[in-house]
User: Which sequence fits this backbone?
């Protein structure tokens, strides 16, 4: 029996009796990171990284949480479990599982580039590697973060000159905080949507330093947005909520923006291919560095990446999971915010 | 190339016409004259000939990127654009600050047309190696054609008009017709002299908007002239300096394509321009568009074809007479002269597009119902005292089309779209029932909202039965109402019919696959409307 099985509730370790990122309620869940497709409610207890816990609390409410530091090994029913930085977002981890000398690593979501916020991705040697493949096609090749940040700042300045507000569309957990690393350098006030405000509060309360932002609220005078910066979760660009920033320009921050068609389909004025996932080369590099003899490819371009790995001499297979649908939850957040601002 | 690549990215992402206009006029204000001429050429559909085909481009790209063919193909289906796929897959260039101006690339492309493959390959590879990703994308686009980036010729003309301080309609005329971008200077292209020098030049076409309001909103019926709206190719017949030219609205010279027109010049006075429809007809009655298609692009025509599908010209306007521009005269005056000219010409290929007599809107509404029987797709309404304007304008000319034919069908195949629909299943094939079987009869790509496309895309991803390259066989479950303009018999299609301009009218979420139309229904429609 393999150390990790792929079940209808998620990735399961029978010996250790725990699940990793299960999509149905279980007794013991180990969570790679706080995005809704990986961290679902209803389980009896959760194990995660210290920095991940306040975010899980924000999303899942009060539960039994056990936290660990990176590299700190815990023994669960005779199975050694440790978390290692995945570089995807604050507190995101890969899960290393070891039993009787056999090692599996479950990547969760990850990126190779150190974004200065999420911890630097660390390759972990293993026999079997379970990897994501969100951007598993060679057309996805990211530019270095500093270059994208420069483009973002230039775009803000251009909008300011044209008398427009820069509205960024970014995931409320992860991408929004990454943007805050470069936007303060423009010297302009930054306003955030309620969903991002809540994440911001939870992160700063836990002692993690982030630059100051203002919440977009019904009593903020419209003039105060003009020429400045707003960050909102995805979906907001198509909701009436965004009308309050007229005149504005929309910039979407996502790896999908690498392809022009996506920028045009979402009617964005600009697309920035700023991603929290590994690009094609990043995936291949990470897989190689694990030294794994067997690779399971999950959410994304599974068939493409698995086929390519097999052709280049790394045994690989596809696995179907329920990961990769972070967007849906955001649309709820936007609807809620919409309702609130309308009622006020 | 950098400046042009920046222009293309701005135009491609901008969602507002004013911004596009500004970007273009900024470009015209800063770019060099040779490049400007090429930009005018490109945005008015005058690209240089293809000297390298898509297969060569992607083979060379793969050599550099060291990728297996199947991976290139997977990438292409996700990106949905060959030029962009290549730009994304190529390894980073050695020096991205070395690119030449736009005209250098286009003129070199023309100059290597007759060279061997090695020379052409070297030019492409060297060019890639000095370009940024955006420049490569634009360069590949120029080579592969299909330069559709969301800018109409009208926007380009308006921007130019702003920069050079000339009226837009004057510019539209001066850049029309036959000119070679490589041999034309910016100054001479826009000079008054050029128009008189090139006596083949057509006038810009006046185009109508669809009438969406109640027809009564047009006011008194006697102020309007009604004609049948024909489904052919809009064209202009020009006779100047004792030579004849036939232009299509796509500004393609059609003179040589249809022998029916050849001796027309002996029947027409000099200094004449007619506006009308290039359309096959028998005894004054138009034949279906599908028959016109059998004649387009065919150089050798058999006697049988000439007899069965004779091409004619339904004239409906007079733009130049005795060398004078008539466009400012009223339609009533132009029509009177036109009738005299056509009647005197007595040529079998030149017919008058008849005027419909009516006295009330109710009467015309009833006549409109007979459009299909007349072989037309509705009615054109033109104000009798209107001038002949430039481009698409509201107010004096309206097209009042009949409602399309509709049929309920089920989606059976789906394929990913292109451009802004890349990586979304938006191109569908539909089927009707034939007993127990489903028979495909039409493909459609348009008619749903973005939100509906996203829903159907999700359905396709979850309900794929088989994969044939980029095509997915889908569980036959989603029912759509398909609208189309006409129907004709066809032995190229399994169903035996070919539809004219099929599109999705609406998603019938209230219907199941058991309730769709049958092949029998389609054949009945063919019986009634297909003749």
Assistant:
């Amino acid at each position: 029996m393999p150390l990790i099985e792929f079940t209808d509730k998620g990735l399961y370790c029978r010996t250790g009796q725990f699940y990793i990122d299960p999509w149905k309620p279980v007794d013991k869940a180990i969570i790679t990171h706080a995005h809704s497709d990986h961290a679902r409610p209803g389980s009896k207890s959760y194990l995660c990284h210290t920095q991940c816990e306040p975010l899980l609390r924000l999303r899942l409410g009060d539960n039994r949480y056990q936290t660990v530091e990176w590299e700190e090994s815990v023994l669960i029913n005779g199975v050694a479990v440790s978390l290692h930085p995945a570089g995807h977002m604050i507190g995101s981890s890969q899960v290393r599982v070891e039993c009787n000398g056999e090692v599996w690593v479950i990547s969760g979501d990850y990126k190779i580039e150190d974004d200065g916020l999420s911890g630097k991705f660390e390759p972990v040697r293993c026999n079997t590697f379970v990897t994501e493949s969100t951007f598993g096609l060679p057309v996805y090749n990211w530019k270095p973060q500093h270059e994208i940040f420069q483009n973002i700042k230039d775009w803000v300045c251009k909008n300011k000159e044209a008398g427009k507000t820069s509205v960024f569309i970014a995931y409320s957990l992860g991408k929004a905080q990454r943007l805050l690393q470069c936007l303060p350098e423009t010297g302009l006030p930054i306003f955030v949507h309620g969903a991002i405000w809540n994440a911001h509060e939870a992160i700063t309360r836990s002692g993690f330093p982030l630059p100051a932002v203002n919440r977009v609220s019904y009593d903020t005078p419209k003039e105060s947005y003009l020429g400045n910066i707003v960050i909102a979760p995805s979906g907001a660009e198509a909701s009436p909520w965004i009308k309050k920033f007229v005149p504005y320009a929309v910039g979407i921050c996502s790896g999908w923006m690498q392809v022009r068609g996506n920028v045009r389909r979402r009617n964005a004025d600009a697309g920035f291919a700023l991603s929290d996932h590994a690009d094609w080369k990043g995936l291949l590099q990470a897989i190689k560095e694990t030294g794994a003899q067997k690779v399971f490819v999950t959410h994304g371009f599974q068939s493409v990446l698995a086929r390519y790995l097999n052709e280049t001499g790394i045994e690989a297979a596809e696995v179907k999971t329920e990961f990769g649908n972070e967007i849906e939850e955001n649309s709820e957040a936007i609807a809620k915010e919409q309702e609130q601002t309308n009622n006020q | 190339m950098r400046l042009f690549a920046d222009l293309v990215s701005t135009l491609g992402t901008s969602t507002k016409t004013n911004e596009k206009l500004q970007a273009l006029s900024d470009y015209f204000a800063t770019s060099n004259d040779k490049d400007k001429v090429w930009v005018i050429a490109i945005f008015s559909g005058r690209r240089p000939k293809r000297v390298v085909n898509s297969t060569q481009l992607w083979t060379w790209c793969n050599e550099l990127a060291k990728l297996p063919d199947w991976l290139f193909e997977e990438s292409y289906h996700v990106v949905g654009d060959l030029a962009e796929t290549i730009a994304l897959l190529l390894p980073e260039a050695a020096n991205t600050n070395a690119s030449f101006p736009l005209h250098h690339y286009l003129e070199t492309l023309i100059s290597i047309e007759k060279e061997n493959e090695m020379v052409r390959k070297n030019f492409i590879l060297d060019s890639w190696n000095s370009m940024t990703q955006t420049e490569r994308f634009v360069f590949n686009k120029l080579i592969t054609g299909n330069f559709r980036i969301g800018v109409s010729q009208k926007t380009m003309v308006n921007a130019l008009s702003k920069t050079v301080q000339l009226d837009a309609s004057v510019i539209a005329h001066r850049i029309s017709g036959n000119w070679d971008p490589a041999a034309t200077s910016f100054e001479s292209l826009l000079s008054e002299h050029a128009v008189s020098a090139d006596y083949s030049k057509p006038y810009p076409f006046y185009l109508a908007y669809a009438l969406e309001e109640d027809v009564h909103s047009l006011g008194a019926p006697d102020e309007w002239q009604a004609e049948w709206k024909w489904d052919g190719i809009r064209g202009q017949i020009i006779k100047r300096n004792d030579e004849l030219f036939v232009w299509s609205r796509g500004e393609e010279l059609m003179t040589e394509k249809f022998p029916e027109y050849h001796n027309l010049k002996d029947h027409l006075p000099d200094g004449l321009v007619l506006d009308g429809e290039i359309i096959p007809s028998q005894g004054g009655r138009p034949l279906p568009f599908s028959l016109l298609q059998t004649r387009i692009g065919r150089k050798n025509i058999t006697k049988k074809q000439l007899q069965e599908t004779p091409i004619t010209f339904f004239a409906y306007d007079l733009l130049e007479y005795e060398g004078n521009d008539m466009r400012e005269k009223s339609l009533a005056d132009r029509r009177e002269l036109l009738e005299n000219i056509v009647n005197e010409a007595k040529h079998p290929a030149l017919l008058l597009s008849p005027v419909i007599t009516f006295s009330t809107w109710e009467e015309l509404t009833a006549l409109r119902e007979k459009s299909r029987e007349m072989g037309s797709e509705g009615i054109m309404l033109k104000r009798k005292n209107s001038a002949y304007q430039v481009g698409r304008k509201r107010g004096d000319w309206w097209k009042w089309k009949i409602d399309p034919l509709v049929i309920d069908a089920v989606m059976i195949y789906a394929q990913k779209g292109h451009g802004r629909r890349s990586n979304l299943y938006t191109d569908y094939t539909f089927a009707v029932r034939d007993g127990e079987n489903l028979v495909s009869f039409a493909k459609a790509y348009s008619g749903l909202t973005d939100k509906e496309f996203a829903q159907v895309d999700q359905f396709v991803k979850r309900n794929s039965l088989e994969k044939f390259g980029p095509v997915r066989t889908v569980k036959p479950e989603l029912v759509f109402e398909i609208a189309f303009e006409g129907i004709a018999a066809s032995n190229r299609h399994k169903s035996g019919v070919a539809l004219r301009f099929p599109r999705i009218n609406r998603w019938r979420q209230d219907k199941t696959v058991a309730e769709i139309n049958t092949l029998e229904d389609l054949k009945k429609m063919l019986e009634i409307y297909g003749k």
User: Anything to note?
Assistant: Chain B touches chain A at residues 12-15, 65, 67-68, 70-71, 74-75, 78-81, 84-85, 88-89, 137, 150, 418-424, 450 (CB under 8 Å). Chain B has a mean pLDDT of 89.
